[in-house]
Amino acid sequence: MSYFDGLPGKPPRERGIFCNRTMNMRSIKAIGYDMDYTLIHYQVEEWERLAYEHLRTRLLAHGYPVEDLRFDPELVIRGLIIDTELGNLLKVNRFGYVKRAMHGTSLLDFEPMRSAYARTIIDLAEPRFVFLNTLFSLSEACMYAQLVDLADAGKMPAGTGYEQLYRLVKSGLDEAHMEGRLKAEIIADPDRFVVLDPEAPLALLDQQRAGKKLLLITNSEWGYTDAMMRYAFERFLPNGMRWRDLFDVVIVQARKPDFFMQKSPLFEVVSEDGLLRPWIGPLKEGGSYLGGDATQVERSLGISGDEILYVGDHIWGDVRVSKSVLRWRTALILWELEEEVRAAYASRVDEARLGALMEEKEALELASCQLRLLAQRHREEYGLPEEAPSCDEVLARLGALKAALAELDDRIAPLAKAAAEVSNSRWGLLLRTGNDKSHLARQIERSADIYTSRVSNFLRYTPYSYFRSRRGSLPHDPSGEAPSPNPGP
Length: 489
What we know:
Elements (H helix, E strand, L loop, with lengths): L16 E3 L3 E2 L5 E4 L7 E2 L1 H18 L19 E3 L4 E5 L5 E6 L2 E2 L2 H8 L11 E3 L5 H16 L9 H18 L1 H8 L1 H4 E2 L3 H11 L3 E5 L4 H12 L15 E4 L5 H4 L4 E4 L6 E3 L8 E5 L2 H8 L6 E5 L2 H12 L2 E5 L3 H10 L1 H33 L10 H30 L11 E2 L2 E2 L1 H9 L2 E3 L5 H4 L4 E2 L22
Parallel strand pairs: 3-11, 3-16, 11-12, 12-15, 16-17, 17-20
Antiparallel strand pairs: 1-20, 2-21, 4-10, 5-6, 5-9, 6-7, 7-8, 13-14, 13-15, 18-19
């Protein structure tokens, strides 16, 4: 067998790159990368537990009764929305309707959820709603839900409202990050926190040698960026090559999303320990900088708009703003996608059974509706067909259909429950709410030209791939039925 016979071809489904908007990689001249949860992946549970513990320590120091609280990695998922007015976490569909809700740490039944949100379309422009954009949000949301329970039990200071609880959590986490203690612990023990991916450096090398300009644009500080990139990348690079050699430009403390929207002073990093000096003028090839803005990057590279692809994990800070303001092409890294795809494919048989039963139910329901109309016409004595069955026959048939529907519902219920709990028993799949797309899926659809689980997935697709979006589906599209052999005139 020749080498060509053994070419790897497409990767496993869960390692695929999925396309919302057709994009030719050959037309991309520069690729910018975020770092955290993009180039560097973390052990999510370890990182978020550490962040949670720092937050709990801060709350304890201020006298809040949180000593018995523990981080629960299954409590929340990315893509939920916090309602700071009612103390709820929400899973919302693409139209803004609430499909599942949790007050504190307890899932709401249908009726209280309907009572709270029947007249509400979730709009993220309203300040009461907070979208959990990234995996960094999990510790924040877990603590918030637990504090709601404490407040409801009367264990928080009198007058502490749900919105105030969120501000308390948010400010506590922000302070923990600003003090630098959290990241210092990660630098001290990266084996515990970082998921190594030996294919990611090779994917970037392929892009660099194919003529792409590579950029690293991160909100992290220089010391943390340098330590993490050395740890995760340099062991997999050719001898003597440093991680900085991969990038034409490195920008730290970029302050995204403002980086894409506002002008900002620029400083050059002139020493390994992060010494800075003001910088005016074009960015130097191979230079490392702090601050600045995206327009400086475009001017220095001599390229702009859809010639630049930006890759990140934050829907708003990385993907949405770079697309809407600068018209850069965008790629979203969704670490959970691999488990999402595996879970979806593992449940295909049950999903098909559920689909078949639902089609059967729809047919019985339509027949029942038609018989109810026939019974109405009998009562009101109008519009009866000449050969219509008697009213008693119609009512008898309606009774039989009602019994058949009840029996069908008994078969559907466990399958529907299982489908709603695929991947996570509280929230189900990340990108679905029942048969519909989740709000997270809609955000990805609107903002990301392509999405995938990790940067190393570019390796098999190469810097020369043409990503083609699928034909968009509509409710009236054929659903796989065989066409009629005699379609008629």
